[in-house]
Fold each of these.
Amino acid sequence: MAETRTAAEAPPAVHRQPTLAGEMLAEFAGTAILILFGVGVVAQVVAGQNGGDDSIHWAWGLGVTFGVYVAGRTTGAHLNPAVTLALAVFKGFAWRKVVPYSVAQVLGAFAAALVVRWVYADAIATVDAGTTFDTQGIFSTLPGAGVSIGTAFLDQVVGTAILVFLIFAVTEARATPPAANLAPFIIGLIVVAIGFAWGSNAGYAINPARDFGPRMASFLTGYSTAMREPGGQFYFWVPIVAPLIGALIGGALYRVLIERHLPEAEDEQQPAGRIPTEDD
């Protein structure tokens, strides 16, 4: 007869610390979820001709929310090299993990964009058989009509600064953050708001992985102009460099304007699910 155990006699739970490989897989998966919803909704609107700007903004925000829920317990769900960089500079995140996290984020975005490209291939071919700029914006951002590269660069700096400033505010345990299980939803709303307020100039990439991964996927699947903007100039670098600068500005502003003035909290532990900052 099989031996049974009562709850009191059950062996103690094993508390595992995630390995770097495990953390990279979490960042890969969380970023992939973000892109499946974000790039997927743009494909539905542009190629499937179903929906509009509002559905794009909401789906991107929900993609962020779901991605954070996927990776949050393991890594805090950066899902964005600009966020990872800001956390290393301002929040003590381990520098040795910055490049591995960023690589995992780009690869997750790349893989998810390939899935969208495959699933929506017929719809894309129907509206844009030549894979031109008409549908390139499904995968990567472009400057809006009449918007210069300089303005697009500035737009990405400002948008990412807002993103990081508010992420720091939402995840600061000494401030008035939401409960740990609600923070992903609030961060998703931040992205929705940025889309509504800052989406027209340059498509609010505000995330080098979100833009470069899908851009590479489109380049390798027929979009020969993927690295350029409609005027012919190289553009791929703008949604990479500008968000990194914006993240540092947003983090610095939060530290100067808010963090340094917060009251000290004794014996306060960071709630589960928040962004980890210790080098473990």
Amino acid sequence: MSLRLVVDNSGDPAAQASPKSCAKVLDRYWLRAAAPEIWARFLREGFASPEAVAVHFEVRFSTACNWWNGLNRPSADKVLIAMVEMPDALTVALAAELDARRAA
């Protein structure tokens, strides 16, 4: 078995390389830290009170209050429920938080 090196010197290398924009990398640490505020924004926009949140997501009132005030993140099953039942509202809350971060 032999190896063969193939080199193309037919053109300008700078012209051949098309400029590509760098994809933005998701800052997972920031998202973890911002999750309670994103969730709270989503809840405050979509529900009248912590009581309504507790009833809708079938959680204790104290849990709903902690979410409402941005003190805790929800568990994955509650996020999945929100994604299925209210995907647009959850997307708007996330976009608003991302816009606020970009402006800062």
Amino acid sequence: MNDLESASLDITGESCPMTFVRTRLALDRLPDGGRLRVRLRGAVPLDNVSRSVRQLGHAITAQIDHGCEIHEIMIVKSSR
């Protein structure tokens, strides 16, 4: 996968609703099937971003807990 098909986003300094807004903007720049790695802080942003991304039809293929309330999710953009 080349750089045009994958991206990383660190939103650990953001709060809701900006966590999802920034995630959505990053997904919009990716082609269908592209992968977005999102690093966020706290259970609320994790739940909100994950739920909203799934509602848009995208898939979350991995979720990693880094401790200290830092989480990372891998999103695959759907062709929807």
Amino acid sequence: MSRARQVLERVVRAADDDGFGAHAVHVLVGDDVAVHHWSPDVRRDIHSAAKAVCTLAVGVASDDGVLDVDAPVTTYLPHVVLGDGVDAVTTRHLLAMTSGIDLPWTPTLLTDWPDLAVEYLGRPSSGRVFQYSNASTYTAMRVLAAVVGDVHAFVARRLLAPLGIDDTTWDRCPLGFVAAGEGLHLRAAELARIGRLIRDDGTWDGERLVSARWPAALRTEWTSREASPVYARYSLGAWGGPGAGWRLHGAHGQLVVFVDDAVAVVTVTADDHAGADLMAERVVHAVAAGAEG
């Protein structure tokens, strides 16, 4: 039995034993793939796992030389009235959630203000402290839109199409901009292809889609915070842990878990917000057990 199949069987057993509401599990070890579905294979919102896609998209624009992630956001959004201290905020800070701007999530976040980016940047910054907010990623994508045009079209052309992912949808705000840190709809296998692209440092079938420094940033540029171990480190779109792993983590259990220096990538789509942290632990343990034979 292949290692991917071993890992898959352990993850499936754990999900069933825990009563975890998974839709699918996709395991990649080397080039070996094993997949299990509990429900129809349809596209679903990957929620905050989309934040990593946003980082890769910014990386492509940076590689192209049209976006400086360490320049103040006012370079690209010059007409926005800034709150105190926001003149020092960069796109990298927005992706890393270190703008120091506080704007909590609500179910109606995209429609609570006439322009979410203007509202966000108009609030004061408390400095380079961690403040998790979907508005931060949304604003980063507004910066990207200022240099590439429609972000979904850019992502579809430069990242998704080369992965064989076509005709996707990405939810939008009333102004027509992508929801950014949520709202991208993918199948489990499609989300797994993004995981593979990250694992392989930005290459796909021998073609470089984004320079290696951007996938590397997802697993190295950590900001520490006081929280439970699985939420104690955040990079530019990923969480550190559990254990030796790290992960893309979207609401309701959308997980891409990287283990053993990303030798194994396990993708889970689900509708079980409460059980997701435990599921991530199960995945890491399943990979470790598979390595032991």
